[in-house]
């Protein structure tokens, strides 16, 4: 499968891979923030199977397939290791890269990620199987798809396949999160589809929520954006870009005496 990707910015240093959300593409997920990130690094923005300009193939849509596709793309581009920034479904793909392909990942930025079903608000996905493709006609995701997809008539099939993925969301154990080697920044909207308590739980598993003045800063970070919803996170470029840039350019431990606490 030929995975559509775009390269932006300079060729110096470890590249940053951007992975979009479900039913989205590069434009609707990263159109606002990409120019800011590309000022200081090489950025590789991808579009996953059946999304945007990448055609569909005869296989289900799964986070595991998406992660393997990104690894294959990195192989084709000759990239041994990359930082990864994923939003929503893309954050789950980024997390899968971190747990299943740790040698290919430098740092992770995970926006709106849940590592198990308990992380979502109760009842959030109730009725998702009743979603019809036409319910999303006129949305920014549908309009982007019509502009970019090799087969604009494939929208209905994409929505149908995504409903199967939503009914079988990827799961990680606390032990897998605790063992994640990549320094990780968790990003959440204060009115997100993921509960803030879950983000804090994940932050603790990664070694966060410690008295940093006494112990040193951990390798992980947590950012909760005020007055923000799940779908408006991509519009918060003025907040996110400097935080992400500073996190990715950090060299070595975050501060004097820093340790990776695993609770």
What can you tell me about this protein's structure?
With 263 residues, this protein is an alpha/beta fold. The radius of gyration is 18 Å and the shape is globular. The chain has one domain: Alpha/Beta hydrolase fold, catalytic domain (Rossmann fold). Helix content is 34%, strand content 17%. It has helices spanning 26-30, 34-37, 63-77, 89-100, 140-148, 155-166, 174-178, 196-205, 212-215, 237-249; strands spanning 4-8, 16-19, 43-47, 82-87, 105-111, 184-191, 221-229. The chain has a seven-stranded mixed beta sheet with strand order 1-3-2-4-5-6-7, sandwiched between helices.
What is the residue-averaged pLDDT?
93
* Structural class by sheet pairing and helices: alpha/beta
Q: What's the architecture, going by CATH?
A: 3-Layer(aba) Sandwich
Largest sheet properties: 7 strands, mixed
Q: Radius of gyration over alpha carbons?
A: 18 Å
Quaternary assembly = single chain
Number of discrete domains: 1
Order of strands across the biggest sheet? 1-3-2-4-5-6-7
**Terminus-to-terminus distance:** 41 Å
Uncertain segments: 253-263
Main CATH class: Alpha Beta
Stated plainly, the CATH topology is called Rossmann fold
Strand content: 15-25%
> What general form does the structure show?
globular
The secondary-structure element order is EEHHEHEHEHHHEHHEH
């Amino acid at each position: 499968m030929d995975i559509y990707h775009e390269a932006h910015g300079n060729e110096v240093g470890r590249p940053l891979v951007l992975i979009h959300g479900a039913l989205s593409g590069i434009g609707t997920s990263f159109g606002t923030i990409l120019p800011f990130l590309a000022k200081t690094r090489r950025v590789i923005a991808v579009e996953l199977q059946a999304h945007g300009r990448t055609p569909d193939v005869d296989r289900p849509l799964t986070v595991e397939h998406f992660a393997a596709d990104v690894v294959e793309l990195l192989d084709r581009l000759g990239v041994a290791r990359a930082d990864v920034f994923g939003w929503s479904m893309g954050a789950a793909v980024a997390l899968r890269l971190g747990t299943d392909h740790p040698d290919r990942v430098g740092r992770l930025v995970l926006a709106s990620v849940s590592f198990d079903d308990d992380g979502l608000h109760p009842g959030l996905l109730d009725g998702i199987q009743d979603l019809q493709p036409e319910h999303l006609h006129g949305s920014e995701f549908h309009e982007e798809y019509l502009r970019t997809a090799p087969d604009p008539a494939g929208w209905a099939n994409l929505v149908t396949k995504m409903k199967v993925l939503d009914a079988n969301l990827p799961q990680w154990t606390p032990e897998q999160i605790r063992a994640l080697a990549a320094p990780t920044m968790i990003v959440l909207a204060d009115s997100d589809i993921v509960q803030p308590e879950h983000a804090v739980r994940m932050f603790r598993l990664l070694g966060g929520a410690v008295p940093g003045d006494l112990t040193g800063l951990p390798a992980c970070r947590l950012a909760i954006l005020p007055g923000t919803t799940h779908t408006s996170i991509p519009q918060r470029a003025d907040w996110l870009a400097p935080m992400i840039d500073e996190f990715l350019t950090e060299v070595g431990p975050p501060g004097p005496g820093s340790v990776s606490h695993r609770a």
